[in-house]
Design goal:
Elements: H1 3-23, H2 34-56, E1 57-58, E2 61-63, H3 66-85, H4 93-110, E3 118-119, H5 124-158, H6 171-199, H7 209-232, H8 237-264
Antiparallel strand pairs: 1-2, 2-3
Length: 266
């Protein structure tokens, strides 16, 4: 068994243990023990970072193949949520994120990674464009998870069923964090699109035009959500529904065609 297989098994086990440590105690009076799930989660992230460094830096290039990008996005989301959890109570989001990372890494372990997309690190603007795109995607996915949490807490408060919110922060605090995250993610996405438009030659080429249009459409939806919230007071189900639509469009832009090209047609 090689090092990659050992790391993958260890990470999947640790992510699963972290998710279980939170979800099994979510409705207990004492709540989940942060020392337990943060230990499991931290060890899993350490192993995940080692795996990424081994896979992404490929023969003096940066390998942004589909599977490496998926793994990197999962890492960005997971480490961001874990850091946020050290300051704020986000016990509904954490087990979802840890379980997602465990499932994704399990799937990737059984799929042969035959495709490589090598990028020369000296192509500064392209690296910046991709890095900002991945960063914005991770932040906006977290914002969408926050939207689910806001709606769940709101539902529990309206139904007077407070058991599920004992270990969660106040509704207004979570909602405020949601829109801060969405604002940061939207700005990163907008800058990424501008860098691509002005500095990348094939940004509007025929073979990439559909991806560009999908990402611009997603950006427009995120901007509409922010405008609707700050100018018209949008919140609740409307924000959640539009966030899911925008995140789906962005996912389709980043991963849809690449999945078909690198996996289904390979």
């Amino acid at each position: 068994m090689d090092l990659v297989s050992i790391l993958t098994i260890a990470m999947v086990s640790l992510y699963a243990a972290a998710a279980f440590a939170i979800s099994s105690k979510l409705f207990d009076s004492a709540g989940p023990n942060p020392k337990v799930y943060l230990t499991f989660g931290g060890l899993a992230l350490a192993g995940h970072s080692l795996l990424l460094s081994k896979n992404i830096f490929f023969q003096q290039t940066i390998d942004f193949s589909l599977f490496n990008v998926l793994s990197l996005v999962a890492f960005i989301i997971t480490i961001s949520v874990t850091i946020i959890s050290t300051r704020y109570k986000i016990n509904l989001i954490l087990p979802v994120v840890y379980a997602f990372s465990a499932v994704l890494l399990t799937i990737l372990a059984f799929v042969p990674a035959d495709q490589h997309l090598a990028i020369d690190p000296s192509k500064f603007t392209l690296v910046i464009h991709i890095s900002l795109a991945l960063l914005s995607y991770g932040i906006l996915v977290i914002a969408t998870l926050y939207a689910f949490q806001v709606n769940y807490i709101n539902y529990k408060l309206k139904s007077k069923k407070l058991t599920g919110v004992n270990h969660l922060p106040p509704l207004m605090q979570v909602e405020g964090q949601l829109f801060v995250l969405m604002l940061i993610g939207t700005n990163c996405l907008a800058i990424s699109e501008l860098v691509g438009f002005f500095f990348i030659d094939n940004f509007l080429a025929k073979e990439t035009l559909h991806k560009t249009m999908l990402s611009i459409t997603a950006l427009s939806v995120y901007i509409a959500i922010l405008w609707g919230h700050y100018r018209l007071g949008w919140r609740g189900h409307k924000v959640l529904s539009l966030s899911v639509v925008a995140t789906f469009l962005l996912s389709l832009s980043y991963f849809g065609s690449r999945f078909v090209k690198e996996f289904l047609l390979s």
